[in-house]
Structures are given as structure tokens and as C-alpha cells.
Amino acid sequence: MDYLHFFSRFTSSSRLLIALLLSTGAHLAHAQTKIVEGQVLNSRTGEPVPFATLGVPGRGLGTVADEQGHYLLRLPPSLNDTLIVSCVGFSSAVVVPAALAAGKRVFQLAPQEHLLSEIKVEHRRMHPALLGNTKAKGDIFWMGGSSGKRTVDTEWGWEFGALLKPVRRTYLEEFHIFLSANNYELLRFRLNLYTVEQGRPGRTLLSQDIQVVCNKQQQGWITADLRPYEVLLDAQPVMATIQWLQSEKTDPEDKYFSIPVTRQSRQVMVERENSQAAWTIHDMQPSLYFTVMTE
Predict the structure, then answer these.
(1) Cα 275 to chain centroid, rounded
(2) What are the b/e assignments for 184-198, b being 16+ CB within 10 Å?
(3) Is 183:256 a contact under the CB 8 Å cutoff?
(4) pTM of the prediction?
(5) How far apart are the C-alpha atoms of 208 and 88, rounded to whole Å?
(6) pLDDT digits over 92-113, tens only?
(7) What is the pLDDT of residues 188-197, one digit of tens each?
(8) β-strands 280-282, 170-179 pairing
(9) Cβ–Cβ < 8 Å for 260, 244
(10) For the structural domain made of 127-294, what CATH number should be given?
(11) How far is CA 237 from the centre of its chain?
(12) Tell me: domain 33-109, CATH 2.60.40.1120, correct?
């Protein structure tokens, strides 16, 4: 877990002590990790799988590959953990500890066959609407970042989102998320949609990789056009999240972004450290919403 959004819940007098403790812990953790480097490839074409995720189930260990499928993963020296490699549109690969110990570093993902069903939007039967939290202000800022670190590979894969409840069949046209701060020269997220199982994200609903890219410290409402993807939701609860894939900034200091969050009387916000970590839920709602056409 990065410490910047964790700090948002503490007074300024507490931050110095926490920073010192986290800094000491970070140095110890770094000294006790083994760096694993390799590449994720498409098993059918041999081409790289951009921004594939790698994670250890139930633990805060993981990262995201770059545009060429190259990854750098920090694991305990013993390498006793099973690794899950995944990406939208591909079947996940399970890498057992013995394979890692034997030096396996190139992982292959098989593309999933997906037949797109034709979607016809009849405007006589559908009308525009909004789904989610459209407020640009919140009670606190939920922050993510890596100030003081030259590499942020251990933060990539962090995921954050909210429970949404479409009451009718809904066609997603645009996705919007508000960044109240952004010090990165490039910031890339993946949009994920999940079924809801026991109050947490379950099965993924998207078969196409939908990304949100922010350039040159872009702030305010960030919008992604979803019309080319033809995403249609049934009248069922859904979890909508963003997943941190990439960030770039030359100066290691002052690197963070933040999203306004409003306190709620029920648990509607979800978060996890990487693609295989356990989900946590919060009595809050982030500033994200969809422009939709609904029946």
C-alpha cells in the first residue's frame, strides 16, 4: 500500500513519524526482495501483451508490465508464492513456485475467443442519464503515489472504484473520473467492470482493454469515450474500478494523484493493492460516473 492516500487520514503532526517508519520499512523490504524480470507474450502470435498484470493471490505483491510486455517484479527471496499473470481479453496463467525457482521468466497468455453481439440503440426507447457520483468535491482526497521513489513498479496494479446500481438495461457512452491533483507527466489507468459477489468485485465483465490516459499533469474531469466498445449492462449491481497501469515523472519527489471521496452511510467503495490482492471496502464514494443511455 502506498503511503500518500494513507496519510490523508492523519493529522500533520502524525505524518513525520509515519514517514520515518515507512521509510525504514521500505529499506528493509527492498533489501529482502528478489527482483524478477521478464516478458509477457501472446501465446498465439508471440507478440507482447501490453500492460499485463502480475500478482500473488491474497498478498500485496504484484506489478504491471509495460507497453512491450516487459515487467519487473519484487518477490521474497524464497520464491514460494504462486504467481497469476493476467490481462483483459486473455486467459490467466498460473505460475507455480517451482517454475519461478527454475528460472521461468517469460509467460504466455492465450487470447480468449469472444463473439460480439450486435447492439442496437433505439433512441425512441432509450434516454440519456448519469450513473455514479458526479460531484467534483469530496470530504477527503484519496491519494496514490510514490513521492521520493525513483521507481513505482510496486504501486502499479493498484485498483480503486465503487458500487453502481443501474436500474434498467444501460448502454455506457462515456466514463468520467475527477483528479483533484496530478503531478505525473503521464498517468495511465485501465477501466474494469465486475459482477458483485458478497459485496465485492467478482467476475470481470469486459473483454476489451479500455484505458484512460492523462498527459501533462492533467487534472479535473478525465473522460474516456466508451461508444466504440459497445458496453451494455443489465439491471444488476456492478463494480466499476480504475487500475493504475503506468506513470511517468522525471523528478522522484512530489509524485502523486488524488481523487475526491465522499463519506457514505454504507460501504460502496472498493480498493486493492494489485490484481490478486484481497479487496477492502469503505463507507465512501469516489467522484466517478458514466454518461449512459438507459431504457
Answers:
(1) 8
(2) bbebbbbbbbbebee
(3) yes
(4) 0.85
(5) 6
(6) 999 999 999 899 999 999 998 7
(7) 999 999 999 9
(8) unpaired
(9) no
(10) 2.60.120
(11) 19
(12) yes
